[in-house]
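Slide 14.
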Amino acid sequence: MERKTVAPRLAAEFKQIFGRSIGGYWCGFTGFDVVAFDDQLIRPADGVSTADAVRAQYGERAVELCRELMCAGTRAALAKVAA
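Slide 15: predicted structure.
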């Protein structure tokens, strides 16, 4: 299994927006650990989605960044399959 790596640009932007390293929320095998991110950093109220909680606290770009991180590595894997 190929290890997933996070692009330095995304890691730097994560630190800038959230004020902490992405290291605690990144796994080389599964990528962005949205469950840990949600449980440890965001902790949304009951009935509030993680996306809505991130948007309210950090803004729309933070939501977009999280979506990019969830897809990181997936595009490269799909490109290999398509080739």
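Speaker note: Helices lie at 8-18, 34-42, 50-58, 60-71, 74-82.
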